[in-house]
């Protein structure tokens, strides 16, 4: 019987990464829970076995329940009945299966009913669920919103809401409005304090809200009357049990049909303030969005895996001219690039997740005691690395998911255009990944300061110092040449001293940054596990080299006068 965890040894490879020891040490606080909770690990090996057990259950459910249900969910979609959203019938089966398996509140502490897993294995579970059904992954992975409530809510709110999510209640983050998409400073949903009832009330409309009729909502609203910018926004917790919110419309979308995207109307809805006023956008949404972006990176890798699975299976089975098409260079060229992008994308996903794990664990420890100077330095280092890598992991994996889904259809030829084949659904599902939770263009904006100030270049040079296997040395030489071109391009743009030109070329600088970092990551993986990654390392580095050469040539031959040719009239 298929299992989307055990069928892929890459997961165990990343669970055995050297940094996992530090992650487990910080997360488990020297395994203090073992005396209180029967399922708490007693040492590092036991912790890893716990993670594997959870992933094995996830892989079984994904392969044998979620994936077989995915087509029916895609065809039926959610329904709107009397102002309430109702999932597709098979979605309720998926929810029931994951709840019975205890796959909710995965990252939450055991004292609230959670599994206390680090972000890295949680991201693996998220990828596995997405491989089966990207639409259901949206519903399931929004449990991650509870991280923001855990970090910024008070203890009373934690005790009230976290056990409910651990039991399987759903969540949503209600940010976007008709006039506030990427520019969340324009949010105008009004929050007013009800003196008589000693609570806050929400009034207004939210749009494009994923899983918008969920049980527990985190809502961005304007609490400071007369303000027009982000400093007037606060974060609120809305409990569906309290009423006051109706679903006005469910969007009819290109893909991820199982995931309801709702327009919500708030009418004097009772809510609770999360954290402090005025910090809703400045602090809390930033934390919420970074978690969501890592979730989309995992979702993207899952769909990349599914697209590769479909392409390779079809190519091995389909014959033309009495030969399996997988043997044709034009076809195996496409498939090898799909696999290389998948492996490189997965590598940066879990590198980012490890960075997030370390700084978040230290943040959590800081709520209990004062950090040592060494721990504060470690916290600062990994927080910065997580902030730098998240836009790379989200941006590139969402683009690769689109490319791999596109190529999966191409491998299928005319059959890929037929609705009975799964590839068309993957293609439709993937298209949103590079748009929601921050478009790829916004990931470039998030990354560009680290490009301009040399942070990525310093990281790259540090990575270049790592030894690679002898037979991978020629590939490392190729990467070193890429770095030279990258430095030249950076210097050229800086010396031009023109902001518009800098912004115009930012995407190409971003692509070069990602290509080089991902090349170095896949080389490191191939050094430690050649049986898993050597082929992809050979393909990916060559692919990245061609991309970097092209982008470098474009950048270094560009002059600011050229901008006039691109401006829309």
Report on this structure.
With about 575 residues, the protein is of the alpha+beta class. The termini are far apart. Helix 14 packs parallel to helix 16, helix 15 packs antiparallel against helix 16 (about 500-530) and helix 16 (about 500-530) packs antiparallel against helix 17. It contains 17 helices and eleven strands. The mean pLDDT is about 95. The strands form three sheets. Strands 3, 4, 5, 6, 7, 8 and 9 form a seven-stranded mixed β-sheet that branches. It has a two-stranded antiparallel sheet with strand order 1-2. It is globular and about 70 Å long. Strand 10 and strand 11 (about 325) form a beta hairpin.
What labels would you give this structure?
single chain, 569 residues, alpha+beta, seven-stranded mixed β-sheet, two-stranded antiparallel sheet, 17 helices, 58% helix, 11% strand
